[in-house]
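Hey L., structure's done. Input below.
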Amino acid sequence: MQTVEKISDEIGRKRLAALIGVGRSAVTNAIKDGVFPASWFVVVSRECEAAKIDCPLSAFNFKEAAE
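Output:
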């Protein structure tokens, strides 16, 4: 399974930051936290698909539904 760090490195941290419209420190913080913000899903998943790498939902901080 791909980790946030591996995904970021394969896409490119600088490229990812530019595509999302954030600073590189935001990508570094996501790596440190171990999850991408849920709002980054569309961009990250699109880039993962283009690079043919796995993009698990667990790599994002989606809120889970209450039971």
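The chain has one domain: 4-59. Residues 4-59 form one domain.

-- N.
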